[in-house]
Design goal:
This protein is of the alpha/beta class. The chain has 2 domains: 265 residues, Rossmann fold; 83 residues, formyl-coa transferase, domain 3 (2-Layer Sandwich), CATH 3.30.1540.10. The chain contains 19 helices and 13 strands. A hairpin with a 5-residue loop joins strand 9 and strand 10. Helix 1 crosses helix 8. The radius of gyration is 25 Å and the shape is elongated.
Length: 398
């Protein structure tokens, strides 16, 4: 079955996470993704371990399915011809090479590739973008989390700044890059030409401020850390049942608050002027939440979850990773992908959560071993077997 991006070819000259995550989703959508790595070394995430599956890093395996992999030494002069042949008929080129000078040195800067293929969509991923006073400075996910203001807001009220445990700056930048590429592909239908996408980890991460930015713009005051407490909605946080297990009580509107009060038989709370609306609940948070917590502590978490859902009050158990990945509902929706790897056996990973009725996403290729498709791809480009052998002997390919 063809995916929505069937016929689109992507050249993925990225490593680590933001770029590979973006290109994996393009592959899930049906694009032919060719991943370029350094011979003998490969994507740096191949070394981000343990844990391993066999000799492969779990980190690398998680974000590199649906790609064909070639090992190409872009520092070698003859590799430049290979790169240019690759992009000549490609639709998308993605790179996260650190500096503009390096891109130009290796002949893979935007002006060069645009001249070779004016229809090419060129996506650059970097820490701070390719223009501005900090352009080309190195950046990583954790640095972006720190500089964006999100770490200052994360953690207990009186605790230290806390990183988000998953690499949200990388993942977010990968998602925005995907959005930009899809928009550029659509724009190309009208213009006939590609364009340059300048993506940065810092800008992707700062979008997570969202309502906090709105608060700051409105008041001029720097928002403070609130732990699990929501700044604009109450009650909307973690609570404990009588068994000590935590769950989220999500009273997200005045109507839901009325439903909650009715369910627990506390009509007086909804009628109390201090708690009659969300605005009043926020103003009287310190008075309200001890009452709510005392109510919740009278029943087990399982009892609350079953009955609150029946009453139309959003709630959810605070799952461990294992519990989340074994959620029966998510499995019913196909969130876990399983692919056979020729050396490692069955590999599981998280699907791209886009469900399309007519052109569904497909999961076809295991994460490639280093240089697994070098001969196949170079043969498609017109390089004969003798040339490929010479390239391999000279470490131009691997």
């Amino acid at each position: 079955m063809k995916g929505p991006l069937d016929g689109i070819r992507v050249i993925d000259q990225t490593q680590a996470l933001a770029g590979p995550y973006c290109s994996m989703m393009l592959g899930d959508l049906g694009a032919d993704v060719i991943k370029i790595e350094r011979p003998g070394v490969g994507d740096q995430s191949r070394q981000w371990a343990p844990p391993f599956i066999g000799d492969q890093s779990c980190y690398y395996l998680a974000v590199n399915r649906n790609k064909r992999g070639i090992a190409l030494n872009i520092a070698a002069p003859e590799a430049r011809d290979v790169m240019h042949r690759l992009v000549r008929d490609a639709d998308v080129f993605i790179t996260n090479l650190a500096t503009s000078a390096a891109l130009k040195k290796y002949g893979i800067d935007y002006p060069t590739l645009h001249q070779i293929n004016p229809r090419l969509i060129y996506a650059s991923i970097s820490g701070y973008g390719r223009r501005g006073s900090r352009a080309d400075q190195p950046g990583y996910d954790l640095v972006a989390q720190a500089e964006s203001g999100t770490m200052a807001l994360t953690g207990e009220i009186d605790g230290a700044p806390m990183r988000f445990p998953t690499p949200m700056a990388d993942l977010t930048c990968g998602l925005f890059t995907l959005i930009g590429i899809l928009a550029a592909l659509h724009a190309r239908h009208a213009s006939g030409t590609g364009q340059f996408l300048d993506m940065s980890l810092q800008e992707g991460q700062i979008t997570w401020l969202d309502n906090y930015a709105g608060e700051y713009f409105a008041t001029g005051e720097d928002p403070s850390r609130r732990g699990n407490r929501h700044p604009q909605v109450v009650p909307y946080e973690a609570v404990q049942g009588s068994d000590g297990e935590w769950f989220i009580l999500g009273v997200g509107s005045d109507n839901v608050w009325q439903s909650f009060c009715s369910f627990v038989g506390r009509y007086d709370l909804a009628a109390d002027p201090r708690f009659s609306t969300n605005v009043e609940c926020i103003a009287h948070y310190e008075e309200l939440m001890p009452i709510v917590r005392d109510i919740v502590r009278r029943r087990t978490t399982d009892e609350w979850l079953a009955d609150l859902r029946a009453a139309g009050v959003p709630c959810g158990r605070i799952n461990t990773v294992a519990q989340a990945l074994n959620d029966p509902h998510l499995h019913e929706r196909g969130i876990i992908v399983q692919l056979e790897h020729p050396a490692l056996g069955a590999l599981r990973s998280i699907a791209t959560p886009v469900h399309m009725s007519d052109t569904p996403l497909t999961y076809r290729l295991h994460p490639p071993r280093l240089g697994e498709h070098s001969d196949e791809v170079l043969a498609e480009l017109g390089y004969d077997e003798q040339t490929r052998r010479r390239f391999r002997a000279q470490a131009i390919i691997g």
